[in-house]
Amino acid sequence: MAEDMHELLEKKYPGLSRGVKIAEGPRTNGVFNQDLSPEMMLVEVGGVENTIEETYRAAEALADVISDYYWSLQEGEGS
Q1: pTM of the predicted model, to two decimals?
Q2: Is the distance from CB of 17 to CB of 66 less than 8 angstroms?
Q3: Is the distance from CB of 66 to CB of 10 less than 8 angstroms?
Q4: pLDDT tops 80 at residue 4
Q5: Are 8 and 68 in contact (CB under 8 A)?
Q6: 59: which of 8, 10, 44, 73 is 20 to 30 A away, CA to CA?
Q7: CA distance to 19, 31, 49, 76, per residue, from 16 (Å)
Q8: Residue 56: how many CA atoms within 13 Å on its side-chain side?
Q9: Could you read off the pLDDT of 25-54 as tens digits, one per residue?
Q10: Per DSSP, which regions of the chain are E strands?
Q11: pLDDT band at 78, cuts 50/70/90?
Q12: What are the domain boundaries of the chain?
């Protein structure tokens, strides 16, 4: 699902996504409550270098892509 989101973001908003990163190493278990549901993923929007306006625009783009993804799944169920 995360890879699908990344690909959709790249297609619709090239360069917006920094890809899918798996947290690993001695200081993390890499879970971040994603074990609470099989379809759970953590999405981070914006960073210290971004303005609040840039962060809002990124969140709107992400919402747009999540909506597209959701509706594409709904269309697939009706087939």
Answers
A1: 0.75
A2: no
A3: no
A4: yes
A5: yes
A6: 73
A7: 9, 24, 14, 27
A8: 3
A9: 777 776 777 678 777 778 889 999 999 999
A10: none
A11: low
A12: 2-78
